[in-house]
TrEMBL record:
Protein name from the UniProt record: Amino acid ABC transporter ATP-binding protein
PANTHER family xrefs: AMINO ACID IMPORT ATP-BINDING PROTEIN (PTHR43166), PHOSPHONATES IMPORT ATP-BINDING PROTEIN PHNC (PTHR43166:SF4)
Lineage of the species this protein comes from: Bacteria, Bacillati, Actinomycetota, Actinomycetes, Pseudonocardiales
Domain of life: Bacteria
Similarity annotation: Belongs to the ABC transporter superfamily.
The organism of origin for this protein: Prauserella oleivorans
Keyword ATP-binding: yes
Domain ABC transporter stretches: 7-251
Length: 255
């Protein structure tokens, strides 16, 4: 370990045409920290974590994972983009959980979980399967190991997606509105799995509108608007004494 933050963003900018989706975002995430990102639709929350996961390239600023610059290297006094293999290697140290689960439909539940550990990380299949079964046990779906995603409810699929995300032992796991596509009665089981991971010390960034989850689980909560971090702090402070009127009106709408 470097002793520095697990993840560091410095002045990150992302433009779509003339529009700045990220307008100079700086953020540190410490090892074991849970950072919850809130903010209105279009404020740049997804873009933020997509840039961290290198699904989008940034236009200015820098992102470091364990002190290592992501996506670029020093070259002749400047920076040049890393090749696809190096980017893939950096990406393999993080995981992302999407709103729409994104499980592979023609793989069983267990195979969905073991695929990255085996193919990307070179783990022996038997080991990956044993660990995959333990993970399924933890998310309450051991009996579904040999089912296919379509045979599961949305909430079950999302719990499989979370098991898949953590199967590679990522340095940080990024969640983009993981419960937004679920029927209300399925949300709590997914949040419970995430709470368990947080309690075990997993480093996470969670974009969510679940304010109760943010309040209980976040070490720090970040409020974004128009591509900027407007306010950030421990949830007890942010929710009880928001300093910006924007955050106050946002909280009034999302109690
Ligand atoms: P959020 O997740 O907070 O709702 P997003 O990060 O998805 O916000 O979007 C931030 C802004 O960037 C929005 O104005 C959105 O329309 C724009 N945007 C996001 N992705 C793209 C894209 N691929 N092409 C063009 N504009 C985009
Ligand atoms: Mg989004």
């Amino acid at each position: 370990m470097t002793g520095g933050p697990a993840l560091r963003l410095r002045g990150v900018r992302k433009n779509f045409g003339e529009h700045a989706a990220l307008d100079g975002v700086s953020l540190d995430v410490q090892e074991g920290e849970v950072v919850v990102v809130i903010g209105p639709s279009g404020s740049g929350k997804s873009t933020l974590i997509r840039c961290v996961h290198q699904l989008d390239t940034i236009d200015a600023g820098a992102i470091y994972l364990d002190g290592e610059l992501l996506g670029y290297e020093q070259h002749r006094g400047g920076l040049r983009a890393l090749g696809a293999r190096r980017v893939a290697a950096q990406r393999s140290r993080m995981s992302m959980v999407f709103q729409q689960f994104n499980l592979i439909p023609h793989f069983t539940v267990l195979r969905n979980i073991t695929e990255a550990p085996v193919r990307v990380h070179g783990r022996p299949r038997a080991e990956a399967e044993a660990e995959g079964m333990e993970l399924l046990e933890r998310v309450g779906l051991a009996d579904r190991a040999h089912h296919y995603p379509r045979q599961l409810s949305g909430g079950q699929q999302q719990r499989v997606a979370i098991a898949r995300a953590v199967a590679t032992k990522p340095r940080i796991t990024l969640f983009d509105e993981p419960t937004s596509a679920l029927d209300p009665e399925l949300v709590d089981d997914v949040l419970a799995v995430m709470r368990g991971l947080a309690e075990e010390g997993m480093t996470m960034i969670v974009v969510t509108h679940e304010m109760a989850f943010a309040r209980e689980v976040a070490d720090r909560c970040v409020f974004m608007e128009s591509g900027r971090i407007v306010e950030s702090g421990p949830p007890a402070e942010l929710f009880t004494t928001p300093s910006s009127p924007r955050l106050r009106s946002f909280l009034a709408r999302h109690h």
